[in-house]
Amino acid sequence: MSEVPAYKNESLSFEERAKDLVSRMTLEEKVSQTVYTSPAVPRLGIPSYNWWNEALHGVARAGVATMFPQAIGMAATFDEELIFKIADVISTEGRAKYHEYQRKNDHGIYKGLTFWSPNINIFRDPRWGRGHETYGEDPYLTGRLGVAFIKGIQGDDKKYLKAAACAKHFAVHSGPEYERHSFNAVVSQKDLRETYLPAFKEAVKEAGVESVMGAYNRTNGEPCCGSKTLLNDILREEWGFNGHVTSDCWAIKDFHEGHMVTRTAPESVALAINNGCDVNCGNMYLNLNIAYNEGMVTEETIDRAVTRLMVSRMKLGMFDSDDKVPYTNIPYEKNGCKEHREFAVEVAKKSMVLLKNENSLLPLDKSKIKSIAVIGPNADSRDALIGNYFGTPSRYVTVLEGISEYVGDDVRVYYSQGCPLSGEKVERLAEPGDRIAEAVSAAERADVVVMCMGLDANIEGEEAHVSSGFSRGDKTDLNLPGLQQQLLEAVHKTGKPIVLVLLTGSALAVKWADSNIPAIVLAWYPGAEGGKAVASMLFGEYSPSGRLPVTFYKTSEELPDFRNYAMKSRTYRYMENEALYPFGFGLSYTRFEYSDIKINKEKVGAGESVECSVKVRNAGKCESEEVVQLYLKDVEASVVVPKWQLKGVRKLNLKPGEQKEVKFQLSPRQIALINDEGKCILEPGVFEVYIGGSQPDKRSQALTGTSVVKGTFEVTGSALELEY
């Protein structure tokens, strides 16, 4: 009997097996494995594999799958446990699809187990077209939700990964889309460490993410997919990352074509692989043979990259018998199953943000309504349900369908598109505004009007998008596009009560609506059957509990230059003007009261944690979830710091009259600041703690009618430098 080669010996570590496997490959075979379309090596039993798969809010681009709300909508739940469960469902469906495709010998794109999700870039500017792929503008919230998503994707088996998550786009990436192949994002060490890196650090050090994707842009002069600072010094050396790094798609050719930091393709691939980019989404790495022959890359460096890739594939069980890998028996029937679809609707319900509810117009009473008008370009739009990076839902329910299904035959539903999402007319040969008269007629005949407006991922999204008022997917302003504002004002003149439902992935400056429309609901892109969740909320089957993971600004004029990556005047942490709707804000159908804040120590020695608690009571008449938020303010900092920062979130469900105590713990690292050199310093001084259902700003207090509670503590002793 011949001896089993080490790479097939399941008793050895994956690292030992991968090194043995790579040692048996020729240079040409090794190079072939560094592109995302990795071919088979039959003599070694290596099957072909395509590294590119997507799972932003469901398994994407490979047929039927459950479609959850877009990532920004998931972020609005402020709920780590929920995000973990979502990701667990996604990886369950991913496993089911992978094994079924393997049985059919289909190894194509989007059929693998390496999911290029989550996108944990900071949504620093509401004009960025891809911001709806993220968890919002706050580093703490992004980090907590990113960690939860990664853990849900990767599973909890001690040996094997359920699937491999990928934290992207590393780093300092949030537009402009149209310049991403040549743009240099200049960022201070303070902003880098305080804002742009924390979520990535937590993804690596806490969640153990298997993969990191580099960004298209340069950061401080270095192209991210070949950055020694980012990929080697910070990711590998400082944080101890031992997974694999992938380039963004065709990003490496940008080194010589867009960034002009190299002159030739072989120089570009040498820069990337020498600094730790292991797999190339694209075909530039086929130039590695030339780079090797010209002495720019050693075979040891290529070995290092291929070994990392083989370790990842082994962690996914691709070289072991199915009976040893715990996820191989997940049945194909799990894809888009009733249980998962119903869960997605529940997630959508938790993502809804109630922005305004004058005189308690909501919830609507079905028994008092004989007719309802559902109007707007997003009322019957499937595109407005699913965002981008989506799979194929087995069923859609638009807002129009959800309302019609809810009210049944007892209530007459009038519908009009009103206007296109952007542009001036629905029919090509018609005059501008060709559906506005119909919309007004529908509204005149209704007891209440639901206006469904906003955006969709056809106009806000990645670089290639082109639409009036948008710059290759980025917004040029924060206004409702096309004739939507004109339509809203025309319907408003009928005098009928209006509920404005915004389906959007980013903030809009709906200042006129805030002044004139009695009820405003933010539904995001709520997933394939999101219309059910919208209807259910409008008619009071549950109380909304979503909170804004981004700031809604009053105008786009107050924003800094889009190309400026400094955090000054950006996001709730550094903005100077009053928000239209602040980060963390969201109304409920009930009312919560906060009291009896306690902090365990008035004086805290450097290096000690602080424990805080507060009592929360449902003082209203209906059961509801509440998002309890803790913000920390450094009163005596020696450098410019955020006015306050989110440092804790708890999700509660309280019945009318019910009260619970909520506890938080602040670690020394959470209390520390980042100084101008990018160092993490715990300074002595006074700190203020605010706990409530919103930020402690005046606008939030006015909108909610509820105060936050405040406590203080003092850090004593000398300043102390902490590990970042």
Key terms for this structure?
28% helix, alpha/beta, TIM Barrel, Rossmann fold, Immunoglobulin-like, 22 helices, single chain
Describe this structure in words.
With 724 residues, the protein is an alpha/beta fold. The chain folds into 3 domains: 1-48 and 216-227 and 242-329, Glycoside hydrolase, family 3, N-terminal domain (TIM Barrel), CATH 3.20.20; 338-571, 3-Layer(aba) Sandwich (Rossmann fold); 592-722, Immunoglobulin-like (Sandwich), CATH 2.60.40. It contains 22 helices and 27 strands. A 6-stranded mixed beta sheet has the order 9-16-15-12-10-11, with helices on both faces.
Topology:
Blueprint: H1 14-23, H2 27-32, E1 37-38, E2 49-50, H3 71-75, H4 80-103, H5 139-154, E3 166-170, E4 184-185, H6 189-196, H7 198-205, E5 211-214, E6 218-219, E7 222-223, H8 228-238, E8 244-246, H9 254-257, H10 265-274, H11 288-293, H12 299-315, H13 338-351, E9 353-357, E10 371-375, H14 383-386, H15 399-407, E11 412-416, H16 436-444, E12 448-454, E13 470-471, E14 474-475, H17 484-492, E15 498-503, H18 511-516, E16 519-522, H19 530-538, H20 571-574, E17 592-599, E18 603-605, E19 610-618, E20 624-634, E21 645-654, E22 659-666, H21 668-671, E23 673-674, E24 680-682, E25 685-692, H22 698-704, E26 709-716, E27 720-722
Parallel strand pairs: 3-5, 4-6, 5-8, 10-11, 10-12, 12-15, 15-16, 18-26
Antiparallel strand pairs: 1-2, 6-7, 9-16, 13-14, 17-19, 19-22, 20-21, 20-25, 23-24, 24-27, 25-26
